[in-house]
Design goal:
The complex is a heterodimer. By secondary structure, chain A is mainly alpha-helical. Chain A has helices at residues 2-25, 42-54, 66-69, 91-98, 120-133, 146-171, 197-214, 223-226, 232-247, 275-294, 305-308, 320-333, 349-355, 360-366, 382-387, 400-404, 419-422, 441-446, 522-537, 549-559, 565-572, 584-598, 605-611, 615-619, 633-636, 658-663; strands at residues 74-75, 340-344, 379-380, 414-415, 432-433, 453-454, 468-469, 502-503, 510-511, 517-521, 623-626, 639-643. In chain A, helix 2 runs antiparallel to helix 5, helix 6 runs parallel beside helix 9 (232-247) and helix 19 runs antiparallel to helix 22 (584-598). Chain A is globular and about 115 Å long. Chain B contains 16 helices and 61 strands. The chains are: A mainly alpha, B mainly beta.
Chain lengths: 673, 1178
């Protein structure tokens, strides 16, 4: 009896204690946010939509954008460790100078490491999470209309497609992750295989096809708040780029990758030459351009020097030279201009800072100012400079005039500018390399060189101090070492600097004008279409509008003041080259060079060189520049080998980090690594 | 309510009893104690023994008086006692009971300790069946000898000392004043013995007055062992517990943890910096067997309350009653939630009944570095800085003219400065004072222990009188402790413990708690030749009333703003007030429930601790100046011109800045039921304890860390002993932690232990003379650990989503108002499967007593299997796209080792004694399961399975590169993630996997673990009359460290507080250095480079972990020496004065600096301390 009482009492107490204890330990508040909260209402779901947008890789920052500083068209000095400043060698530079490796690859977008701004797979997961939660039956928001929901879904699918395309560009065959993988997944669930090139391309195209339906056209979106979000035209353009890549030599008839199979026995790279791929790409590019033109996109020809970007130039007094030079720069740096199909508003400050020059007075004021913003290191190589056309619109080595006058042979010698050059192109009295004379206006619009006039910078052309011009100082660019940086090759990528961007004269602070950095602009699509046409059927091929490759090339050339392709070669090329545009292979070269010239420094070179499978040729040339340390003109104009890169077949595709392969033995490394 | 129960009320009605229990439960568990009527405890004893055993008698006394008792051996317990006592006080009762018995007694705190009367052959003699006290019968006519027996330490009289004449069964005892009287012949030897003291023998001479002093036998204090949630008789303990002699912890340092190394078998400790205030030693119980993100340090309990290692460090050794470490599963199972890493258990002293006893101690100590930091002088600094810059960049840092002018003794020091910042701003010694005072005493109703201590630390900074305010360090620490025991009723005792620590700091900014180490660090960074600490005025500043602090703008002409570190200005520019405090209050109630069931007791403990602190800074912004190059004209009365570097930004009025503030609250409550009873030969004991613990951080910076940390535990122990020979013990802890998903919230951690007193077996009789004691014991069980990840990440079973992450989007064509939205960030994925880290521990021990028990040896071996160690999953590829890591309970590790303890006590002849103690700890561990990539076939040496926990790893350095050609023709070295530039004279690594690239796959294990595998200590004390000396030697071996080259690289620009410093050069670098003229391929330091960071030429390649920098060290050091002398009768007191020193001498193969500091030779050196003290007891 007593014992019983005791036991009951003990049990009651223990139970009370146990319940109390569990409560006592339950200290987490119930309303801690969980992932589902992100889809409770439209407002939060929109945040998730922006999260997906936010996972797009950065394309405008030269520090970590392969296209801007990793392509070998622009070089930075890795030894540049100026006194007092910590060195900021870009990972892209290290990659280009050192070559890549498998232990810890540079610009590792697969894992989001070592220079890569994003782990692309995280972005893909974001998209998958969004797509799996946005429908009302999956717990998605109920306070939004279905049209909008459809549009968001389409946008996220486009983001997902682009992220896959980005990996496809870098790695070729990639695993396809189309759903959210639970964190408890183990073993087989994580052992993904890479899928063959064609399947990856199809997957991307399918995603885009699904999205295009529900995406708005550009006229339907609010310019003030939505420019930069995906439209039908953008999605079609990405589709075109994807198919062009899949049709390009790197994945088309590339025997080096032949028989590259994984442990399932699946061949990851397609076999043989396929004209159908180009045909498919052509259709897609054609559709993208038709869609763009319908939406009102046009090649930009500036009528007013960019709304007074040069203070004393306006639509009434603009001349053809100014127009031609300004138009190209405006096509890139005028925000959301009529040529820009897709751009990002991500800051271009760093890019503009790096590509800007210091003017004479700024050099003089630099000492003692602290000079916080000196950039001037985004330096195009001499190799790229040489690839710009002559004033006649043909390559300098094919130009009959250059040949006859010995300009080509003597191009590294210097001379004073003649009168017709001094107004817009070269500062009078500035001796500069022959190479810098008699070039196409596109060259003068794109490249800053010693003695070259740097129009804009908020200075009127009529200002006696104008035009500012770029020069290496008395002691060479080395003088800049103490304060900041210097262009390794002696050139700067002027094109990427907005016309208004300049420095304050007193403290050498950058005053920069933001612009929307173009990811796809119409000229790019035209050049892609021209390439597809030529690849499908040579100069004779036509698109749905009956236009051939020449047609699209000539529109672009005309903007920069050049005559048509056929005419130019006919009139100005040396004899052996006059017929170059008439055959497929000649035209292929022309299209490629046109593309390099037109899109120079905009982030395409890195990908184009690889896509065309010409990197071994391009990168096994020594990278040339002038002697930045030269104390006088003669010293400065000494050719210098900046670097002898080594490029082999394996470098066409990025290596996958060894650890990643150890995690998953079903993944295989890219060929050669 | 009146809970007074009478002991006679054993037959009270069961209903009442039940109600009583309920009341008690209510009182204990719901903490609802309202009023307790205090009543004086009846101290007088009345009993009739009628031949009961001593054990039974003592139990009766315990019931009547509340005294605990402890009988040293079972024979003593069996002694039959005949006495009829009516209302005698306890001490008289005991005297009557034990008169002529083979036992003697002593009061230790609240415990009556009964031990054999020394040097009697009681065992061979049958108990004397007499009723009346035996008179001393003298067989012959002898001389009457009288005298006084006093404590050798403080000369207090000792009551109850047994004095026997050797080889005769004659004896007497001292009275309360220590006076004895007995008859003996000349030539007889008198043996003086008492519990707790070393016996002494005196030969009777012609003098009939024989006074003697007995020294405390410190070993006796260990007879009861403090175990988890209670005490146990030493011989019944089966688990692994090591107790340190508290006196050994008394070092001339205000940091207790620095005294731990080598003191206890099973405790591994080391100290890596000597910076005052930051010198907490790291310590581990046995080998570290966890390698995850979890906690590896032991649980620290002070008076049952979990405290921080900082609290332990601040504990005053004089206040400690016992200090032990619990090592195996049985000992720690009750602390299941946190016991896996071992437990440090400290109890503080409680009051002793009697007249007030005062103990006063004052110490002054001088500390100075154990090893001198040998720095290059300014001239060679410049020369080598030039070598470094020249060899890498082809440029000189300092023109030769500057070097030449600076070497000129008649130079103008303002123009050609050469500043020894360290010498200018710091001393190489500091003087500290400590004073402790404690009082104890009390009566029947209450006893008290009150202690206060005060210490003052003056730091190592030199005072400069140029400043308007005193910028020297003044760090005062006060601690107060009050332990009061109140006998509320006969059966209810309350203990109130209060302790408080206060730190008051005033001094230069940033030195709080560092005593000047911060400035010390800056003096090694400030450039010695760029500018003086301050300039003498030039023409323009001659009327400016301010200090013209030196600085440099980065160019020769002072154009720009000050960019360099001037430690002098940093000291001078202001001061800081810091106040930190810890307050602890604790209430304990101990209720004897013997009236309900014999042997049952209950206990409640409640405690609240608060930590808080703040700092305030008042400072000005110094005006900096720079000598303008080229203006020096010695013929001018103002021989140079200065440029003002910050004429606009500087100000010299005092401004205020708030510093950091912190608050933390902790609470603890415990209710326990204890039961101990003997039934004939069966000793049964049990303990059931429930506890809750709560911690709240008031300065949390996110939701997760703002939530309280909580533990709930129900723990129990059941002990059974048979005939004091066989012991069994079962323990369990049922622990709840807020850190786990409800499914895993509760962890159950049982353990079992067995003991066997072999030497008490009949078959041992023949061996007993040779080996008086042999005991075997062993335990096995589980212990848990819930602190497996950092506090801010502890809710891994829930996700951590940030719905307002960094904005993204930025859409639209208006750059002034782009449209963006916050992003959604997953900072942690919900992972409900994480559970307790569990340790399976086995402990086997052997206890031996030899040479008449003078030598005691305890040998223990242990094996531990740590499972469920939390690790980041390695198999989740990037493809999954997770934005944070996922963890699992994956890892396992095995630990094993050996602890040895050896004590030897001997008193030689009159007044001379010595004690030797030694301990030895060996512990090693091995990772048995580890979540890692499958390296098989790629780089199997990268796998850590089979390696020791904490094992070093690095690249294999072959030598230095001969020339740049060799660099070009050797495998590419990508040791730094990227292939940083390297040249001749840089370290050449071996391509282990022969793939032409040296990368992470070429990293191999090397050296020993970072924690020493072997640690040992040997201590000895020797006393003769008033003089005593003790010494302690400690050593560690089998550990490795990497010399931290990147933290020592000379000339490298280092930013400190936004200012640039150029690191000083350690002289050892010069002695063996690769230079272009001396291409020593095996130099101690590779080619110099002035660059830092991942892109630094050379350094980025050289400063990764490799065997080039690896040092496997072991050392042995004279850790402490103390000499004391006691002055007899000095104004009525007997002060003991003593001198001591710590870290006096070190032997090691590593010579560059103190090997205990490990890698960084520039960090604040360990200190050697010389100390003078005086202690007075009265």
């Amino acid at each position: 009896m007593i014992v019983k009482h005791k036991i009951y009492a003990a049990i009651v107490v223990l139970l009370l204690t146990a319940v109390g204890c569990n409560k006592y330990l339950d200290i987490l508040p119930d309303d801690k946010p969980v992932l589902e909260d992100a889809f409770k209402d439209r407002y939060n779901a929109e945040k998730y939509l922006f999260t997906c947008y936010g996972s797009l890789p950065v394309v405008a920052d030269p520090i970590n954008t392969l296209g801007l500083s990793g392509g070998g068209d622009v070089v930075y000095d890795p030894l540049n460790t100026p006194g007092g400043n910590t060195a900021h060698i870009t990972s892209t530079t290290l990659l280009f100078f050192n070559g890549n490796n498998t232990a810890n690859p540079y610009m590792n977008f697969w894992d989001g490491e070592n220079g890569a701004t994003k782990n692309i797979w995280q972005g893909i997961r974001h998209c998958n999470v969004f797509l799996e939660h946005i429908d009302p039956e999956d717990g998605g928001p109920r306070d939004m209309d279905e049209m909008e929901r459809e549009r968001w879904i389409a946008e996220v699918k486009t983001i997902k497609a682009y992220l896959n395309f980005y990996l496809f560009q870098l790695y070729g065959p990639i695993p396809i992750v189309d759903k959210v993988i639970p964190i408890a997944a183990k073993g087989e669930e994580l052992a993904f295989y890479r899928e063959p090139v064609d399947q990856v391309a199809d997957y991307i195209v399918n995603l885009l096809d699904e999205a295009i339906e529900s995406l708005p056209v550009v006229g339907e979106i609010d310019p003030a708040s939505e420019y930069g979000r995906f439209t039908k035209t953008i999605a079609r353009s990405i589709k075109a780029k994807t198919l062009v890549l899949a049709a390009s030599p790197i994945f088309n008839n590339n025997n080096y990758y032949l028989g590259y199979t994984d442990n399932r026995g699946v061949e990851l790279f397609p076999e043989g030459d396929s004209r159908e791929r180009w045909q498919r790409a052509l259709t897609a590019a054609d559709e993208a351009i038709r869609s763009a033109e319908e939406a009102g996109y046009r090649i930009l020809v500036s009528a007013d020097a960019g709304s007074g970007a040069i203070p004393d130039v306006n639509s009434t007094n603009i001349n053809d030279t100014t127009k031609a030079m300004i138009s190209l720069r405006q096509a890139v740096t005028q925000p959301w201009n009529q040529e820009i199909i897709w751009a990002t508003n991500a800051s271009t400050r760093q890019l503009q800072r790096f590509a800007s020059m210091l003017s004479n007075s700024e050099w003089d004021n630099m000492a003692g100012s602290g000079a916080p913003d000196i950039g001037q290191r985004h330096a195009p190589t001499l190799n790229v400079v040489e690839s710009f056309y002559s004033a006649n619109g043909v390559p300098i080595e094919e130009d009959a005039e250059w040949d006859q006058n010995g300009w080509y042979t003597n191009r590294y010698t210097t001379k004073l500018p003649e009168a017709d050059h001094t107004k817009f192109l070269i500062k009078s009295g500035q001796e500069t390399a022959l190479l810098h004379h008699n070039r196409s206006l596109r060259f003068y619009a794109s490249v800053g060189f010693d003695g070259g006039i740097w129009e804009g910078r908020s200075e009127p052309l009529s200002n006696p101090a104008f035009p500012n011009f770029m020069r290496h100082m008395g002691s060479g660019f080395k003088y800049g070492v103490e304060y900041g940086f210097y262009p390794l090759s002696g050139y700067l990528a002027k094109k990427m600097v907005h016309l208004r961007t300049t420095y304050t004269a007193t403290r050498v602070e950058l005053i920069y004008e933001p612009y929307s950095f173009p990811i796809i602009r119409l000229a790019d699509l035209y050049l892609l279409l021209a390439e597809c046409l030529n690849e499908v059927d040579g100069p004779g091929a036509t698109d749905s509008q009956g236009n051939n490759a020449y047609y699209y090339l000539d529109i672009i050339r005309a903007r920069s003041g050049m005559e048509g392709v056929v005419d130019s070669w006919q009139k100005y090329a040396s004899a052996p080259y006059k017929a170059k545009p008439d055959n497929q292979s000649g035209l292929r070269e022309i299209i490629r060079q046109e593309r390099l010239n037109e899109l120079a420094f905009e982030g395409h070179y890195y990908y184009d060189v690889r896509r065309w499978l010409i990197a071994e040729e391009v990168y096994n040339q020594p990278i040339l520049g002038w002697n930045k340390e030269g104390e006088n003109k003669a010293d400065f104009y000494t050719l210098k080998v900046l670097l002898q890169p080594r490029f082999s077949m394996k470098d066409y595709l990025m290596p996958i980090k060894t650890n990643t392969l150890l995690q998953n033995r079903n993944l295989i490394q890219n060929p050669g690594w | 309510m009146n809970f007074n129960t009478k002991p006679e009320d054993l037959q009270g009605s069961s209903v009442n009893r039940f109600l009583l229990i309920m009341k008690w439960i209510v009182a204990l568990i719901l903490l609802n104690l309202t009023t307790v009527m205090a009543e004086g405890v009846a101290q007088d004893i009345s009993l009739k023994t009628n031949g009961m055993s001593l054990l039974q008698v003592m139990k009766a006394i315990q019931q009547q008086t509340g005294y605990e008792f402890f009988i040293k051996s079972r024979e003593l317990g069996r002694i039959k006692v005949h006495a009829d006592i009516d209302g005698l006080p306890m001490n008289q009762t005991m005297q009557v009971l034990l008169q002529d018995k083979a036992a003697t007694w002593l009061l230790e705190g609240n415990t009556i300790v009964i031990k054999p009367r020394p040097n009697t052959v009681a065992e061979s003699k049958p108990p004397v069946p007499v009723r009346e006290p035996v008179r001393v019968v003298s067989p012959r006519q002898q001389n009457k000898i009288t005298g006084k027996v006093t404590d050798a330490f403080d000369d207090t009289p000792i009551a109850g000392v047994t004095i026997t004449v050797q080889r005769q069964q004659l004896g007497t005892m001292t009275d309360a004043d220590g006076i004895y009287e007995l008859e003996a012949n000349q030539g007889d030897s008198l043996i003086f013995s008492a519990i707790g003291y070393l016996a002494d023998t005196v030969v009777v001479g012609r003098v009939r007055l024989i006074n003697t002093r007995l020294s405390k036998d410190t070993e006796e204090i260990e007879e009861t062992v403090v175990v988890a949630f209670g005490k146990q008789k030493k011989e019944s303990v089966v688990s692994s517990i090591t107790t340190v002699n508290v006196k050994d912890l008394r070092t001339p340092s205000s940091n207790l943890t620095t005294a731990l190394a080598g003191r206890m078998a099973g405790l591994v400790a080391y100290q890596s910096t000597g910076a005052p205030g930051e010198e907490d030693a790291q310590f581990f119980v046995r080998s570290v067997t966890s390698f995850g993100s979890g906690l590896t340090s032991p649980l620290i309990l002070i008076d049952n309350i979990e405290m921080t290692s900082k609290d332990l460090a601040r504990l005053n050794p004089d206040d400690i009653a016992s200090f032990s470490i619990l090592k195996d599963a049985s000992a720690t199972a009750l602390y299941g939630a946190r016991g896996a890493n071992g437990v440090v258990l400290v109890t503080t002293k409680e009051g002793e009944r009697g007249k007030v006893k005062v103990s006063f101690r004052h110490e002054s100590s001088l500390s100075t570095p154990t090893t001198k930091v040998d720095m290059a002088d300014p001239i060679s600094y410049m020369e080598y800085a030039n070598i470094a810059n020249m060899t890498r960049h082809g440029e000189l840092t300092y023109p030769q003219s500057k070097i030449d002018f600076t070497s000129d003794p008649n130079r103008n020091p303002n123009v050609y400065p050469a500043v020894d910042w360290k010498d200018m701003l710091t001393r190489d010694h500091s003087l500290n004072h400590r004073t402790n005072l404690n009082l104890t005493g009390g009566g029947n109703a209450a006893t008290y222990y009150l202690a206060g201590s005060f210490s003052q630390d003056n730091g190592i900074l030199k005072v400069d009188n140029k400043n308007p305010f005193n910028s020297n360090i003044n760090l005062k620490k006060y601690t107060v402790r009050s332990n009061v025991n109140l006998n509320l009723t006969k059966n209810l005792e309350a203990k109130v413990r209060l302790s408080a620590n206060f730190d008051d700091y005033t001094g230069p900014i940033g030195e709080s708690g560092s005593g000047g180490a911060n400035t010390y660090g800056k003096t090694l960074l400030a450039n010695p030749v760029l500018f003086p600490a301050y300039y003498e005025p030039d023409y323009n500043t001659q009327y400016v009333d301010r200090i013209l602090f030196g600085n440099n703008a980065g160019n020769d002409f002072g154009e720009g703003s000050p960019g360099y570190l001037n430690p002098y200005a940093d000291i001078m520019r202001g001061y800081e007030d810091v106040r930190n405090n810890t307050l602890l209050t604790q209430l304990e109630l101990h209720q004897d429930l013997g009236s309900f069931t014999k042997g049952l007791k209950a206990r409640f403990i409640g405690s609240i601790t608060r930590y808080s602190g703040f700092s305030l800074q008042r400072s000005y912004d110094p005006f900096y100046y720079q000598y303008i190059r080229g203006t020096y004209d010695p013929s001018n009365s103002f021989p140079y011109q200065l440029a003002a570097l910050n004429p606009e930004d500087g100000y010299d009025y005092i401004d205020y800045q708030a510093g950091s503030k912190f608050v933390e609250a902790r609470g603890y409550a415990e209710g326990a039921l204890l039961y101990n009873r003997s039934f004939g030969k069966h000793d049964v004991g049990s303990l059931l304890v429930g506890s809750i613990k709560d911690r709240l951080d008031g300065s949390a910076n996110n939701l997760d860390s703002s939530l309280p940390s909580r533990n709930v535990a129900l723990a129990g122990r059941f002990t059974y002993g048979y005939g004091n020979k066989y012991f069994a013990e079962l323990n369990f802890g049922l622990n709840g932690s807020e850190r786990f998903d409800p499914r895993f919230r509760w962890g159950f951690f049982p353990s079992i232990g067995l003991g066997w007193q072999v030497s008490d077996e009949p078959f041992w009789d023949n061996l007993r003379n040779a080996v008086p004691k042999l005991k075997l014991r062993g335990t096995y069980g589980l212990v848990g650990n819930d602190v497996i990840v950092s506090d801010s990440d502890r809710f891994f079973f829930t996700s951590n989503i940030n719905l307002n992450g960094p904005n993204a989007g930025y859409f639209g064509n208006n750059f002034n108002s782009l449209t963006s939205r916050p992003t959604i960030e997953v900072l942690r994925y919900a992972n409900p499967n994480i559970t307790w880290e569990v340790s399976y521990k086995t402990n086997l021990a052997l206890e031996l007593g030899l040479f008449n028990n003078d030598l005691e040896l305890i040998a223990e071996v242990y094996h531990e299997n740590r499972t469920n160690i939390v690790q980041v999953r390695q198999d989740i590829p990037s493809i999954v796209g997770l934005t944070s890591n996922v963890r699992t309970n994956y890892g396992e590790a095995m630990g094993k080792g050996l602890d040895l303890t050896l004590n030897y006590n001997k008193s030689l002849f009159n007044g001379m004694w010595y004690i030797l103690r030694g301990n030895f700890t060996y512990g090693t561990s091995e990772i048995t399961v580890y979540d890692e990539l499958d390296y098989s076939g790629v780089a199997p040496w990268r796998s850590v399975v089979g390696r020791k926990v904490g094992q070093s790893q690095g690249y294999v350095a072959e030598r230095l590169f001969i020339d740049d050609n060799e660099v070009l023709n050797s495998p590419v070295q990508m040791v730094n993630g990227s292939n940083a530039l390297y040249q001749a004279g840089d370290i050449k690594y071996r391509d282990i996997n022969n793939d032409g690239v040296i990368d992470q796959f070429d990293i191999v294990p090397m050296g020993y673990p970072t924690n020493p595998e072997i640690q040992y200590g040997i201590g000895g004390s020797f006393g003769f009359k008033n003089f005593d000396i003790s010494a302690f030697i400690q050593g560690s071996s089998r550990f490795s460290f990497f010399m931290n080259a990147s933290a020592m690289a000379p000339f490298v620009a280092v930013t400190s507080g936004g200012m640039r410093g150029d690191r000083a050069m350690l002289n050892f670098i010069k002695e063996s250095l690769w230079t272009e003229t001396n291409r020593d391929l095996y130099a101690q330091w590779p080619r110099l480079s002035p660059d830092a960071g991942s892109e630094a030429i050379g350094n980025a390649n050289n400063f990764v972990n490799s065997n080039y920098w690896l040092r496997s060290a072991s050392y042995i050091r004279l850790k402490s020496v103390e000499m004391g002398y006691k002055i007899n009768d000095f104004y009525g007191l007997s002060p003991r004065i003593y001198a001591s020193g710590t870290n006096l001498f070190t032997l090691s193969a590593f010579k560059l600096w103190d090997p205990e500091m490990r890698g960084n030779g520039l960090s604040y050196p360990l200190q050697k301390v010389f100390n003078l003290g005086v202690q007075v007891n009265f």
